[in-house]
Amino acid sequence: MAAKNSNKPKNKTVAKKGAKSGGIAWPVRIAVFLILVCAAVFAASTLIFFVCMMPTFVAMVIDKQPQKTLWLTVGSMNLAGTVPAWFRLWEAGGTMADSLGMLSNPGALLIAYGAAGAGWMIHMNVTPVVAAMAIKRGENRLRDIEKRQRELIRKWGDGVARTQE
After folding, report:
1. What is the pTM of this model?
2. Which of 11, 61, 76, 112 is a plausible cystine mate for 81, CB 3.0–4.6 Å?
3. Distance of CA 46 to the CA centre of its chain
């Protein structure tokens, strides 16, 4: 009976790993395929999006922080600057010629890239302010704890402050 079961893997995870050894999972393949189809169908909008959102892609690549918040800040502002160009493209008819015409107009790129620059400035200036606020809050909390400790020592004696080792 033991020889009969010897062909089966002993661990279920080993069997699952063998089944997934084909590479990329099917849901990811389907998602990538659908994104490429949408990019082809809406080529003019895709071109506007790709060119106008370039600062976000750069921020995504160069961000070395573990939290990776730079691309979110730059990207949200960059997207806000890209939306007017999209609206103008859709109002103009949404053809590839309209898209290329808009990209040759420096105003659309100036708005999108200027908004991305505002995102950079927000990231560079807000992060130190938030860090300073967090440090100040911690210092205040420590001061309150020390004050409470002195109060307990005054009320209960010096034995309260001793720790057992």
Report:
1. 0.64
2. 112
3. 21
